[in-house]
Structure formats: structure tokens, C-alpha cells
Amino acid sequence: MSITKETKKKLIADNKCSEKDNGGSVESQVAVLTERIRNLTEHMKVNKKDQHSKRGLITMVNRRKKLLAYIKGRNPDDYEALIKKLGLRK
Question: Tens digit of pLDDT for each residue in 52-89?
């Protein structure tokens, strides 16, 4: 259900903004959240009655939504590139 350290490091490396970025940038956070959401979505397909995980999934989706809105307001070009890279909407 959770992502491994290696997967998280790879996602951060692929989406970091600068050389000093260790995962704190908004783009890296969105990438990690997207992977966690995908994993938890697969879990929810099998375990439909797992309400605790459902609540966590909704929380992660809302957090990602807020971070994407922040990126869109700050730099729309970065927003478009990120959603294409992660395979999100549109």
C-alpha cells in the first residue's frame, strides 16, 4: 500500500526543481502524493469497505488538489508540464 524508499527517491529525483531539492518542492510533493494515491486506489478496488483507508485517500487527493492549485497560480506553464508528466487530467 505504501511506497518504498527507493520509489520515493526516484520520484523526487525525477521531479526536483534544483540540485539542492530533497523532496520539499511542491512538484516533488505532488509526484509522491500521486504515487501514493494510485497505490491506495488499487487497494480500495479490492477492499471496498475499508473506510479508514478511504478517508486517507480523500485526504491525499484534497492535499494534492491544493498543491496543484498553488502551482497553477504561481506558474501555469509548470502546472501544465507537471500534469502531463504525471498523467493527470486532460
Answer: 999 999 999 999 999 999 999 999 999 999 999 999 98
Task: Please report the domains of the chain, with CATH numbers, ordered by start residue.
Answer: 29-90 (1.10.287.10)
H or E element at residue 64: helix 51-74
Give every CB contact of residue 50 below 8 A, 6+ residues apart in sequence. Answer: 43, 44
Q: Cell triple for residue 84?
A: 502531463
Maximum CA extent, the chain: 43
State the amino acid at position 45 in one-letter form.
K
Distance CA 29, CA 26 (A): 5
Are the beta carbons of 33 and 39 closer than 8 angstroms?
Answer: no
